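We were asked to recover a plausible sequence for a given structure. The inputs and outputs are reproduced exactly as logged, with field labels preserved.

PROBLEM: sequence recovery
POSITIONS: 455
GIVEN STRUCTURE:
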């Protein structure tokens, strides 16, 4: 078995690991690079293997940095099956179609505004490519082995983090590989704690998004309530850029709990301005048995919430006559309806903009939470006078201790560990802890490097 690290090897995004065995090639995840422009430009590079020679893909979960390059892979000739859990398939449908629409919109806008270096600007992929990719999905039940290609079998193990998210183990009859995907936290608002993979592995690919950090002990829910109350007192509104899938549902839960506890005015309007978040919420309802919520709490997630559907209603929210809370995507303010609200609200000091969770460095959200007082939105510079807050405890990733705990619980030590899906400092910090605390050989693979598992 040989593994080639084609993405998320020196950064947090673009998760792509190619497993080769017996002449077959299996891709684990096929994610989009996000963040700095130099990383995003990698989305336009060809894979080192022709996509039509890849025999299949296993998707750990539906987040864009794990699934978002699938339509490009299909556009370039990949025709094989894409295995994943049933909930991942349902969420990927929402996420990939939205990504394709955003790609098409960006290309159209760049052509109108003339700010693309390419003439004409073209989308990375289209809605048609995303639909073709979705037709290749093959949902499989977690915790049961399934046959993939050639001698390889695989198994999905739920790991919290996001509805449907799983770790992936691959066995070619001689060697076993375990890929963590993204690990959730044991105290996640919506998802149960990660399950431990039941089989031993020769090679462990462990994510390390929070490899050098621990989640803050402070209660961000109390802080969020305080920010909202202070903003409302000065007649301002609160904009919460949120990932439409996962985070939006967790925030609805938090806001409903705060209202029930009397921490927020009961009549303070909450607007969910994201058709995608509304679709995702419906999928969370369908798969409610995978959540850790009581039936009553799950049913009341959207009670009293204004669901904004049309672009006209979305625009009207920019000039609210009384304070409102606006949940809108995308979560790092890289695209979507939140951009209109950001441009309208950021210049006014009475408003607050609250980023809940990790912001990729270089993204618009990443710049704002590190103190940028001016950001470019749709080709225009916008001055930032609103309060900007970053609530880091709403991460859906395990922190460094959570990652270590999951590894410690594995049935047997792996023979080697590759630390992936992290900024260089986080990857190296986790590598050190693995070597020092567990005594397992660990390394941080380079983008494009190869690893041969010796028999
Ligand atoms: Zn994820």
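RECOVERED SEQUENCE:
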């Amino acid at each position: 078995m040989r593994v080639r690290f084609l993405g998320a090897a020196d950064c947090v995004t673009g998760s792509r690991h190619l497993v080769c065995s017996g002449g077959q090639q299996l891709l684990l995840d096929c994610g989009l690079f996000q963040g700095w422009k130099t990383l995003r430009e990698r989305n336009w590079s060809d894979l080192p293997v022709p996509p039509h020679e890849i025999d299949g893909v296993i998707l750990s979960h539906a987040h864009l940095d794990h699934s978002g390059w699938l339509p490009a892979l299909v556009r370039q000739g990949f025709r094989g099956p894409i295995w994943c859990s049933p909930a991942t398939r349902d969420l990927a449908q929402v996420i990939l179609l939205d990504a394709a629409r955003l790609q098409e919109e960006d290309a159209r806008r760049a052509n109108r505004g003339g700010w693309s270096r390419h003439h004409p600007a073209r989308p990375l992929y289209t809605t048609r490519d995303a639909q073709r990719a979705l037709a290749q999905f093959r949902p499989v039940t977690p915790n049961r082995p399934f046959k993939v290609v050639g001698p390889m079998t695989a198994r999905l193990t739920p790991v919290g983090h996001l509805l449907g998210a799983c770790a992936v183990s691959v066995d070619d009859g001689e060697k076993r590989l375990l890929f963590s995907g993204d690990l959730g936290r044991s105290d996640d608002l919506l998802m149960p704690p990660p399950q431990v993979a039941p089989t031993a592995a020769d090679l462990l690919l462990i994510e390390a998004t929070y490899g050098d950090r621990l989640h803050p002990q402070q209660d961000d829910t109390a802080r969020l309530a305080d920010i909202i109350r202070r903003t409302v007192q000065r007649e301002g509104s609160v904009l919460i850029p949120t990932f439409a899938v996962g985070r939006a549902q967790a925030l609805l839960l938090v806001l409903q709990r705060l209202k029930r506890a009397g921490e927020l005015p009961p009549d303070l309007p909450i607007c969910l301005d994201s058709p995608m978040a509304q679709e995702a919420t419906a999928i969370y309802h369908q798969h409610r048995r995978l959540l850790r919520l009581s039936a009553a709490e799950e049913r009341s997630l959207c009670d009293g919430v204004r669901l904004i559907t049309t672009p006209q209603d979305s625009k009207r929210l920019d000039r609210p006559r009384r304070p409102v809370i606006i949940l809108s995507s995308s979560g790092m303010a890289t695209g979507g309806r939140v951009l209109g609200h950001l441009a309208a609200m950021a210049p006014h000091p009475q408003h607050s903009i609250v980023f809940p969770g990790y912001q990729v460095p270089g993204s618009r959200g990443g710049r704002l939470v590190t103190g940028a007082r001016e950001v470019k939105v749709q080709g225009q510079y916008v001055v930032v006078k609103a309060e900007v807050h970053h609530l880091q405890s709403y991460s859906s990733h395990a922190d460094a201790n959570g990652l270590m705990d999951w590894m410690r619980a594995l049935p047997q030590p792996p023979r080697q560990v590759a630390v992936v899906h992290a900024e260089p400092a986080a990857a190296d910090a986790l590598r050190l802890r693995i070597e020092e605390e567990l005594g397992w050989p660990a390394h941080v693979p380079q983008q494009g490097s190869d690893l041969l598992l010796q028999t």
